[in-house]
Known about the structure:
Elements: H1 16-41, H2 48-70, H3 75-81, H4 83-114, H5 120-130, H6 134-151, H7 153-156, H8 161-185, H9 187-190, H10 193-225, E1 228-236, E2 239-245, E3 259-264, E4 274-277, E5 286-292, H11 296-299, E6 310-316, E7 329-334, H12 338-347, E8 352-358, H13 367-377, E9 380-385, H14 395-401, E10 409-413, H15 416-428, E11 436-438
Parallel strand pairs: 7-8, 7-10, 8-9, 10-11
Antiparallel strand pairs: 1-2, 2-5, 3-4, 3-6
Helix pairs in contact: 1-2, 2-4, 2-10, 4-5, 4-6, 5-6, 6-8
Amino acid sequence: xxxxxxxxxxxxxxxxxxxxxxxxxxxxxxxxxxxxxxxxxxxxxxxxxxxxxxxxxxxxxxxxxxxxxxxxxxxxxxxxxxxxxxxxxxxxxxxxxxxxxxxxxxxxxxxxxxxxxxxxxxxxxxxxxxxxxxxxxxxxxxxxxxxxxxxxxxxxxxxxxxxxxxxxxxxxxxxxxxxxxxxxxxxxxxxxxxxxxxxxxxxxxxxxxxxxxxxxxxxxxxxxxxxxxxxxxxxxxxxxxxxxxxxxxxxxxxxxxxxxxxxxxxxxxxxxxxxxxxxxxxxxxxxxxxxxxxxxxxxxxxxxxxxxxxxxxxxxxxxxxxxxxxxxxxxxxxxxxxxxxxxxxxxxxxxxxxxxxxxxxxxxxxxxxxxxxxxxxxxxxxxxxxxxxxxxxxxxxxxxxxxxxxxxxxxxxxxxxxxxxxxxxxxxxxxxxxxxxxxxxxxxx
Length: 445
């Protein structure tokens, strides 16, 4: 059989992730400068604490709008940065919001208390009773404090994802309350028509991004593509592949390595969405996921009926060949993490080395497909078996399998402990960070 391949894609001269990240930082810095300008233009109160409190509140409002952009799941950002990194930024931005708004509340309260005969507690009660919008701000701050508490590592590890996610949904309530407080009492908001227009634009873009990325785009794509299950194929005792077809799939902007949030519209599972990677490169006719039974959602896939409607949110993820920097690659998979690796092998050009790490030969899901693909594309395939200790992918072993690994792009997907170990090995082998590509499933609420 003759395999016809297109010319290898040239290395990326400008890294998409760097462009997107720099663009986000630049936009945030520019808006911080605009906020500062409008703040100084509005004039200062006589009390220093009130001045600092108002400025902290404005920066907190700006961070809240920026936070909405991070969780909007906008395709342009997601393809370049990745949902896992956006989620990490979301977490730290959330703590920034918590501290700026807490500073705002404390400084404003103590500032007004200085010019009255009230203690801080009674002062905030008085403000809530007499000034429009303050009570809403107090409620918003309370919600943010609760969300911040459940986001701390100690609490997060002890909460079910569903509970954590439900609590996070109240953040949207806090955003609306904070915005109405800003409209009602924000001196900078009402200081000039330009400032008012600016703040309405900021909140309009932020809330509009959430509406487009989280609601309108998924609804539009699912209405357009009409996905249905066409086959359910067991790959092993606890692994199953689900094939889907639909309309105009050649126009779906999915790439090998990406994942969707899949919702199978059965009476008992329509409400549950699970992230699964594509296990084959999109061909314009079908989509395929391959999942290991690790919970109720993934275990139930084996019983999904042909013809079941599927609601898919995505595609998501930056684990694609878009981020290549070198003409040759190494694809490293562990366990069921082979699914995006197998899809990537179809798409990447240039000489490729595939390393598949499993405990036993029986655990090598999709190995026959990998072998056939490697043969067709002239790639090297290494199946590495054995218990996790001793580490079969230590630096010396990786250097033996791929002597020129430091001159290649490395795509890595597998269980977290394995990924951590391999990332350590790559550092010891002096593989440049821009050449290492990986993504963890981590969803922002």
